[in-house]
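A student in our group prepared the protein record below, which I am reviewing. Thanks in advance; the entry in question is below.
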Amino acid sequence: MNQSPASKVSEKAIPLKEVVITLYEAQEKIYPRSIFGYFTKWRWVMVWLTQLFFYGVPWVEWGQRQALLFDLDAKRFYVFKLVLYPQDLIYLTAILIISALSLFLFTAIAGRLWCGYTCPQTVYTEIFLWIESKIEGDRATRQKLDESSISAKKLLKKIGKHSVWIAFALWTGFTFVGFFTPIRELFSDLTHFSMGPWDTFWVLFYGFATYGNAGFLREQVCKYMCPYARFQSAMFDDDTLVVTYDEARGEPRGRRSRNVEVDTKELGSCIDCSLCVQVCPTGIDIRKGLQYECIGCGACADVCDTVMDKMGYERGLVKYSTQNAVNNNWSRQQMLQRILRPRVLIYTAILSLLVIGLLVSLWVRTPFRVNVVRDRGVMERITNNGMLENVYRMQIMNATENTQHYQLSVSGIKNLQIELEHAEANKIIAVKPAESRWVVVDLEIPEGSIEPGSHKILFKIKSLEDKETVTEKSIFLVPR
C-alpha cells in the first residue's frame, strides 16, 4: 500500500529540543542599603554589647583563673565566683528552660526581637556588611562592582574584603574556643605556633562557619535554615507587636513630587520608592504583609520615616504595631495596654518563679558535693583481727577557690569504726581548690555484733572552714 507524502514526512525523525525545568527559584544576591534611624541605632547598640561581652569576657580574670571558663578537660565550669561540676547539670537545664521561656515571652510581646537585634547570625551579618561597605562602597557601588568585568581594582577590593572577613572570622573562632580552653594559654600557644590539633580544628571550624554564614549565606540562614522562622507564628497573636505597613493609609501608592498633599492626586502616603525593600536584610516587601522571612529589625520603618519627613507627611506608615491596633485604629496607649494580656502574664509569672528559684538555689548551694558508692570488688569481708568490714569509695568535690578540710562521721550502727586511706592527721580529708578527690573508707564492726542483713547507715561530711554538712545514705551488709 502506497503512503502519502505527508505520512512519510511525519515518520521522519524530528530532532527534540532539550528543556531544563528547575524546581527551585534562582536566588538573587541581596544588597541591603545602609540606613540610620531609631531602630538601626538600637541594633548597633546590641551589636556592641554582645560583641564586647563575647570578645572581652574570656580575658577577664577572677582571682588566679579565667572568670568564665567551661573547662571540659578538668570537668569543671567556672562562672565568676561559682565553680560547677557535671553533677550540677540541673543548673544548665534551668538556664535552658529560662532561655526558652524568655524567647516565648519576648516573641509574644514583640515578635522576633531576638532575630532582629541579638541573634549571632544577625549580629555578624551586620558586621560583615559594614566591613563590605567600607571596602567596596555603598549599595549601588557594590552592585556595579559585582557586575563589572575582572580588573585589578576589582580584584584588590575583593581580596581586601575577604582578607578582613577571614581574619575577623578566625579571631571569632579563636575567642569561642577560648571559652573552653584557657584563652591566655591558647593565645600563647598560637603565638608560638604550638596549638594542639583539636584546638586548631575547632578554631578553623568556627571561623569557617562565621565566614560562610555571615559572608555568603546571610539571609538564607534566616529564611531556610533557622527553624524559628517556621514556628514563630504559633507564638504570635493579634496583640503581638510586629513590623506592619498601614495599608489603609498608604494605598493606593504612587510616585509624586515633594510636599504634594496626599489627597491631591487621590493617592495614599506611600510614594512607591521601594526603599523599604532595598534596606531589608532578607529582601522582602513589608507592604505585602507580615512574612515569615521578616526578622523584625525595623530597618524598613526607619527608612520609611525618613521618606515621610522629606515628603512632609506624618511618620508611622511602616511601624511596630499590632494587628488589632491596625484594624481598630487604636492609639498607642490602647495598643500598649493590650500587652499585659493573660498569655504574657502567665509567661512572666512562670519565668519569674524559675529565675528566683535558680538564684535561691545558687545562693543556698552547698560549697562541696559528696558521692558515696560501695566498692563492688569488696562487698563484705572478715578481717584478720575478727572485724566485719565493708568498703566504700567516697568522692568529695570542692566547689570553692580555697583548700577545704572535711571531717567524716557515720551513724546508724553502734560501735562502727572508720578507717580512711591516705587521710591526714585526725582523719581529716583535705581537698585542693576546685578539685575532686576520691577516698577509700573502711567501716568495721565486731563480727556477730548485729544480725545479718542490710542495715541503713548515714555518712556525714562536715567542712571545717564553712561549717557546712552534707549527708549521704548507704547500707552496711552483714552476711548470713
